[in-house]
Amino acid sequence: MSQWTGRPIKDVCFAVVDCVNKTAPSQAEPTPYKMLRTTNVRGGWVDTTNVKYVDEPTYAKWTRRMVPEPGDIILTREAPFGDVGMLRSNDQVFLGQRLVMYRPDPHECDPDFLMYSMMGPTVQAELKSLGSGSTVEHLRVPDCEKITIPCPSLDDQKRIGSILRSLDELIENNRRRVEVLEEMARAIYREWFVKFRYPGHEDVLLVDSALGPVPNGWDTPRLSNLVSTQYGYTESASSEPIGPRYLRGMDINKKSYIDWSTVPFCHIDPSISPKFRISVGDIFVIRMADPWKIGICEEDIDAVFASYLVRMRPKSGQLIPYYLFFTLSHDAYQDWVTGASTGSTRKSASAKVMTEPRIILPPQGVQVAFNDAVRPLRETMRNLTQNNAKLTALRDLLLPKLVTGQIDVSALDLDALVGDRVA
């Protein structure tokens, strides 16, 4: 490894550009011009999908200092403080408030290394020391150019940046595959149970029901007649493995998947834990609109669930869990619960309200066929998510050591490390 030297960040960048210090007027409808906010910058990535939009004159005015390009690095100066991401798309974006952008000089510093170094312990500690504010920590614009980057030779920077970027790209590719598989499963649900184009539908007439036309022989009972409900357990979560996993609403992601590797633990009296013990096939609905996130337990795990979740279990075998899960995740149910919920600031719903609507109940054979169609997709999603948890742990282990010179990058066999982690 080469000798490492500390260099001011302005010396390894073509430009350091602050945002315009006011909020751009946004448009109600999407346009090609996107405003980045601090919430779009996380963990090395810049999200260009969940954004606000502006018109072309506003975009031109807000990019007069510099138009962001792929490879630019963005730092949040406040709320939250110190997050870093690299712009990787060609979207026409601009900096919203409390963001600063760095354009690396590739002849002086590898862009990937610069970004990961800014995420590493040395630079993050310096950011903390530069941060000010009694209530909300923030970084002053002049200090954004003072950040010191510990740099080895350019060749070693490229090796380090390439290793960490390769891991992040593996993680991102897996995440995108999960999204595709999730949409495939939801498309099957819509095809079978919204459009009623399920296997064998050609020979079945549609008849009137309480929910409109449905295939002959299908029922429309109230959900309350099909499931039992239960509220969870109130306890403090812990990162220490002091008891069972403790499932909370925040542990069910927006795609309705539970990544158990990130679920914390809790202490619970063994005499009452069986009442709250989670079983395969259990469905969980969050009681507060977020939106009404739905989760399903798909593996045998020692876990209990929090009090602001409602557990639903099918009664008497009339419902296949996957069919119930996708029915509750569908827009029709989500919209109904939203309309029936209460609360002036944040809507909430009781178990009684959640189970009041009628749902379409197909015959067992159709539900089983649906289960057989979506289960392989969900299993692949689960495997990809578990692999991502291992890859993320590896990336988080390597990053601080690589960007501070604690590991000789020339001796690092990334293929072997990744193979061991995801085997």
Task: Summarize this entry quickly.
This protein has 423 residues and is α+β, with helices and mostly antiparallel strands.
Biggest sheet overview: 6 strands, mixed
* CATH homologous superfamily heading of the largest domain: DNA methylase specificity domains
| C-alpha termini separation | 30 Å
- Protein structure class: alpha+beta
Estimate the global geometry from the Cα principal axes. globular
Order of helices and strands, N to C?
EEEEEEHEEEEHHEHEEEEHEEEEHHHHH
- As for the CATH topology of the largest domain, it is Adenine-n6-DNA-methyltransferase TaqI, Chain A, domain 2
The overall pLDDT average reads 91
Give the name of the CATH architecture of the largest domain.
Alpha-Beta Complex
E-strand count? 19
- What is the percent of helical residues? 25-40%
Query: Helical segment tally?
Result: 10
Number of domains: 3
What is the CATH class of the largest domain? Answer: Alpha Beta
Strand content: 15-25%
